[in-house]
Amino acid sequence: MTDQAAPKTHAEANRQRKDIVLGEATDEARLIRFVAGPDGAVVPDLARKLPGRGIWVGADRDSVATAAKKGLFSRAAKTKLTVGPDLADQVEALLARRVLEGLGLARKAGVIISGYEKVVAALATGKVAWLIEASDGAEDGRRKILAAARKAPTPPRLLGAFSSDELGLALGGENVIHTALLSGRGLDRWTLDVERLSGFRPLSPPDWTAREREEG
């Protein structure tokens, strides 16, 4: 569901790298890879394909900001590197794009369901891995579909980080509000990208959680 190849072995899937902020080995899945560009600028490499020695930082805004502020990129590279003031924003935008592109691939693979009635029916089967709600959808419809999700045999995880327009562009539709992502090939890789994105933006608006508590 993304352009990154799946790990070939268990050892590769659990590979560790040194986080330059923590100074200790950390699971690669929890890190962002950076490289030095030809002009000496720090470049995010989310697909982990760019040439050059990788510099690894925790997948969250604070870690990227700390690495930039303390000159840790230059220290790790053993040469002077320039860090753009918007580096964390660059990472967030790239991660968001990967997540949305992954949804587009999932649609082509036939594991995406959209539309209120179809999503509610899918939730009842227990096969929905992620419930994806447009951040700007109507509260009444969201409240009802979240209630259905809580009653599902296997309650799905919730993603509400994208607007209806963003989801529509990714999925090739209009007015995309309620979407279900079914379990299938590539789900784990896509989920890792979502979890990395959570270090840079909330996966759903904070008031959704507050309302769920009130209604739960």
Decide which structural class fits the backbone: alpha+beta
Largest sheet: 4 strands, mixed
Oligomeric state as shown: single chain
Provide the succession of SSEs: HEEEEEHHHEHEHEHEHH
Please state roughly what percent of the residues sit in beta strands, choosing from under 5%, 5-15%, 15-25%, 25-35%, 35-45% or over 45%.
Answer: 15-25%
Q: Biggest sheet, strands in spatial order?
A: 6-9-7-8
Tally the beta strands. Answer: 9
Q: Count the helices. How many?
A: 9
Kindly state the mean pLDDT as a whole number?
Answer: 91
* Shape descriptor: elongated
Low-confidence segments, given as residue ranges, are: 2-13
Rg estimate, integer Å? 19 Å
Q: Distance between the terminal alpha carbons, to the nearest Å?
A: 33 Å
Q: Into which percent range does the helicity of residues fall?
A: 40-55%
Search tags:
216 residues, single chain, alpha+beta, disordered N terminus, 43% helix
Q: Helices and strands in order, then pairings?
A:
Blueprint (H helix, E strand, L loop, with lengths): L9 H4 L2 E4 L4 E4 L3 E6 L5 E3 L10 E4 L2 H9 L2 H6 L9 H22 L3 E3 L1 H10 L2 E6 L5 H12 L6 E3 L4 H8 L6 E5 L4 H11 L8 H10 L1
Parallel strand pairs: 7-8
Antiparallel strand pairs: 1-2, 3-4, 3-5, 6-9, 7-9
Helix pairs in contact: 2-4, 4-7, 4-8, 5-6
Describe the structure.
This protein is 43% helix and 18% strand. The strands form 3 sheets. The chain has a 4-stranded mixed β-sheet. The two termini are 33 Å apart. It has helices at 10-13, 61-69, 72-77, 87-108, 116-125, 139-150, 164-171, 187-197, 206-215; strands at 16-19, 24-27, 31-36, 42-44, 55-58, 112-114, 128-133, 157-159, 178-182. The longest helix is centred in the middle third of the chain and has 22 residues, at 87-108. The chain is α+β, with helices and mostly antiparallel strands and 216 residues long. Strand 7 (128-133), helix 6 (139-150) and strand 8 form a beta-alpha-beta unit. Mean pLDDT is 91; it is low at 2-13. It is elongated, with a radius of gyration of 19 Å. It contains 9 helices and 9 strands.
